Amino acid sequence: MVTEHPDYEQEKERLTYTKHYMEEILTAAEGKHEDFKGNIKEAFENLDYLDSSLSYINILVNAKFIEMNTADIEHLKRVESKPYFARIDFKNKESGEHDSYYIGKVSLFRKDTQESLIVDWRSPVANLYYDGRLGEVEYETEDGEVAGNLTLKRQYVIEEGKLEEIRDIDITTRDELLQDSLSGTADNRLNEIVSTIQAEQNEVIRSDLSKPVIVQGVAGSGKTTIALHRISMFIYTFAENTSPEEMMILAPNDLFIDYISQALPDLGVDQIKQTTFTEYVRKSIGKKVKIVHPDQKFLQILEHETEEELLEWASHFKGTFSFKTLIDRYLADVEKTYRVNDDFKVEGFTIYKAKNVNRLFFEDYHYLPLENRVKKVKNVLQANFKKKKKEMIKVIEQKFEDRFDQLYYSMKQTEERRKRVVHLNDQKEKKIDRIKKTTNKVVTEYMKQYPKVDVFQAYHELMSEKDQLLHYSNGELTKQQAAYLAETFQERRKKNQYELEDLAPLLYIHTQLKGMKKKWQAKNVVIDEAQDYSVFQFYALKQAAGTDLFTLLGDLSQGIHAYRGIESWQEVMDEVFPKASYRTLKKSYRTTVEVMNLANDLLGVHLPHLDSAEPVVRHGSKPKFLPLQKEADAPALITSEIQSIMEKGMKSIALLTKTMKEAKELAELMKATSYECQLLEETQQLTQGKIAIVPSYLAKGLEFDAVILVNAKDHYTDHEIDIKLLYVAMTRPLHYLSMIGPSEDSFQLNPLNRTLFQTEQG
Ligand SMILES: Nc1ncnc2c1ncn2[C@@H]1O[C@H](COP(=O)(O)OP(=O)(O)OP(=O)(O)O)[C@@H](O)[C@H]1O
C-alpha cells in the first residue's frame, strides 16, 4: 500500500503543490494566448495599407509568441497528469547542500522564487538517477565534475495525477518499474521508457554528443528507443544553436516512421526530419528517381534464383569503398574537362588569362563542388571585367590620343586630315561605346566552354560502358563483372529505372559535383536498422549531410540485407567514422525468456558467430509449434490461436509470413474469418485493433504482444538469409510466439533444443 510508505504524506503534498503550480502556469499561459490573439486582431484592424510595416511587425511578433506559448502549453499539458517519475537526493560534497530533485520529462521552475520544481531527465544532475548507485557519486556539468553523496533514489507511479506507488531503489532492489513496464502491452510502450532507461542504454544516450557512435545491439535491446532519446538529448543540450529541423532520423520504411513518430512529441522532438534513405536522396538531389522495388532482388536472393552469385556480388560491390574509389577516379577525369584553353578577352583586352582561370578552378576553389567552382569563377570574371572597364576606356582614349598626335604631326591641316580625324574619332567613340555597352554577357559567353554539370549523365556514362568500368577499377573488376554491371545498368535504363544500390553513388556524385543545399544538410543524423546500410551509403550520407555526428544503431544478426549491407562495424569505423565510439547492448527488453531462448538457439545452431541476446528476466509461455495438415486448415488454426491470445488480454497480434506473396494469400484466406486483418505493405500505417499480416522482412523494428508465424508454402531454409529472417520474426513478440506450418522443418526447428518449444501435444 502506497499510503504505508513513511514519506507518503509528504510526497502527496509535494505532488499537489507541483500540480497546483502547473495549473496556475497553464491558466496564465492561456490568458496570455488570448492577449496575443487580441494584439493580432488589433494590428489587423489598424493595418494601414500605405505604411503597414509597424502593424506587420506587431502581427509577426505576436504570432511568434503564440507559437512559443503553444509549444510550452502543449508540453506542460502533456505531462500534467504525470509531472515527474522519480526523485533523487544528493548531498553536494563541496557546499554541503542536500537537495531533492524531482525528475520529469520537462523542467519546471517557479518564476517567483526560482525554485526548481521538476528537473528535465536530460539535465546533468538527472544522470545520477540513471547511472548512479547510492553512495559516493559524481556527475558532469558544463563547469566540471560535481561530487557528492546520492542518498535517495525513488520512483513513483502516478496515474491521472494521483500518487499510486512509491518505490525506493537501492542496490539490491530489482527495478520493479522496469518489470512493470515490460509486462505491459505493446501500445504506448515507446512513450513511457524515459523513467526506466537502463544504465547501459543511458550511457549510449548521453555518450559524447560531439562524436559519432555506433551501437551493435541485439534484438529488443532498445536501439530504437535509444535513437529517439539521444536525439532528444542532443536538442536539449544544443538548444541554443540547433533547431530540431537540423536533426534527421533515417528509418527503413514509412511503416516504421509511423511507428516511431508516436513517441516523438513526448520527447519534444516532433519537428525533426524523419525520412527513409530513398526519400532523402530523392528530395536532396531534386529528382524522383524510379527505383526497382528492392524486394524484387531480395526475393530473387531469398528464393535462390539463378545468377544469384553475380547478383549478390553486384549489390555488394556497389556499396563498397572500392566502388567509391572507382567513382573518384572517374570524377577526377570529369574534372579535367573543366580546364579552359582560352584567355578571357574583351575587345582585344585580356581580362583574365586561361592559366589564372584554371588556377582559380583547380587550386583556389578546389575545395568546392564543381558547380560552385564554376559559379565562383564566373563571379571573379564579372568583378574583374567591371573593374577593368574604366581602365580599358582610358587605354583606348590614350591610344587614340597618340594616333591623333601622329596625324597632326605628320599631315598638314587639309580636308583629308580633317576627314581622317573625324573617322578616327568615330572609331574611338564606337569602341568606347561598345565597351560601355558590353554587359556581363561576355562572361556568360566565356563560361559556355565549361561543360554543364549533370549528375545523371555523369553516372550513366560511367555505368553503361564496361570498358570504362574496367579502366577506372584499376584492375579490381574482372571483365565478366564489369560487363554484368554495365549490362544490368543498361537494361534498367531502358525502363528508366535505378536500383536501390544506385542511390548512394548518385548522392555522392551529386554532392561532389553540385554540393548539397543547406536544407538537406544536418547537424546530427541518427540511423536505425543501420546494419542494412552499406559503407558507401554511410560515406555518401556523411558527405551530403556535412557532418560526421552520426548515431548508427543496428544488429548484424538481423542483417537480412547483408548482401548489400555491411559485414562488420569495424569496416564502417575504418572507412567512414574513424572517430566513432563503439558500444554493444546485449540485454533484450522486448521478449520473454522463453521466446528469446528459442531465438538464441536458432542463431547458436545456425550462425554461431553472431551475438545472442540476454533476456531481462520476464517469463511467459514456451513458444508453440502447431502442425498444419493442409493450407485450407490455416484460418481455423489461426482463429483458435487468436482467440486464446485475446483471452489472455493481449491486444496487438501479428501474423508473420516469410514472403509478401504468402502474406497476400493469407490475407485472402483470413477474410473468411470473423477477425479483421490488415495486410501491411511498406507505405501503410498500422491500424490499431486489427490483426496485422506482415511479411517478416517488413516487420523488422516492429513489435507486437503476440506473433504467429504462418508458413504454409514458403519455408525457411537453413540458408543464412532465411535464418536471419526467421530470427527477426521470432524476436517481434513481447509475450507470446507460436508457429503454424506443415512441419517443424519449415521453421528449422529440428536441430534446435526440443525443450525450448512445445508442440501441439504439449
Ligand atoms: N529501458 C527500458 N524500459 C522499458 N522498456 C524498454 C526499455 N528498453 C527497451 N524497452 C522496450 O523493449 C522493446 C524493444 O525496444 P526497441 O524496439 O527500442 O529495441 P530494438 O533494439 O530497436 O529492437 P529490434 O532490433 O528488435 O528492432 C520496446 O518495447 C521498448 O519499449
UniProtKB/TrEMBL annotation:
<protein>
    <recommendedName>
        <fullName>DNA 3'-5' helicase</fullName>
        <ecNumber>5.6.2.4</ecNumber>
    </recommendedName>
</protein>
<dbReference type="GO" id="GO:0005524">
    <property type="term" value="F:ATP binding"/>
</dbReference>
<dbReference type="InterPro" id="IPR027417">
    <property type="entry name" value="P-loop_NTPase"/>
</dbReference>
<dbReference type="Pfam" id="PF00580">
    <property type="entry name" value="UvrD-helicase"/>
</dbReference>
<dbReference type="InterPro" id="IPR000212">
    <property type="entry name" value="DNA_helicase_UvrD/REP"/>
</dbReference>
<keyword id="KW-0347">Helicase</keyword>
<comment type="similarity">
    <text>Belongs to the helicase family. UvrD subfamily.</text>
</comment>
<dbReference type="GO" id="GO:0005829">
    <property type="term" value="C:cytosol"/>
</dbReference>
<feature type="binding site">
    <location>
        <begin position="217"/>
        <end position="224"/>
    </location>
    <ligand>
        <name>ATP</name>
    </ligand>
</feature>
<dbReference type="InterPro" id="IPR048228">
    <property type="entry name" value="HelD_bacillota"/>
</dbReference>
<dbReference type="InterPro" id="IPR013986">
    <property type="entry name" value="DExx_box_DNA_helicase_dom_sf"/>
</dbReference>
<keyword id="KW-0067">ATP-binding</keyword>
<dbReference type="Pfam" id="PF13361">
    <property type="entry name" value="UvrD_C"/>
</dbReference>
<dbReference type="GO" id="GO:0016887">
    <property type="term" value="F:ATP hydrolysis activity"/>
</dbReference>
<dbReference type="InterPro" id="IPR014017">
    <property type="entry name" value="DNA_helicase_UvrD-like_C"/>
</dbReference>
<dbReference type="InterPro" id="IPR014016">
    <property type="entry name" value="UvrD-like_ATP-bd"/>
</dbReference>
<keyword id="KW-0413">Isomerase</keyword>
<feature type="domain" description="UvrD-like helicase ATP-binding">
    <location>
        <begin position="196"/>
        <end position="592"/>
    </location>
</feature>
<dbReference type="Pfam" id="PF13538">
    <property type="entry name" value="UvrD_C_2"/>
</dbReference>
<dbReference type="GO" id="GO:0003677">
    <property type="term" value="F:DNA binding"/>
</dbReference>
<keyword id="KW-0378">Hydrolase</keyword>
<dbReference type="InterPro" id="IPR027785">
    <property type="entry name" value="UvrD-like_helicase_C"/>
</dbReference>
<dbReference type="GO" id="GO:0000725">
    <property type="term" value="P:recombinational repair"/>
</dbReference>
<dbReference type="GO" id="GO:0043138">
    <property type="term" value="F:3'-5' DNA helicase activity"/>
</dbReference>
<keyword id="KW-0547">Nucleotide-binding</keyword>
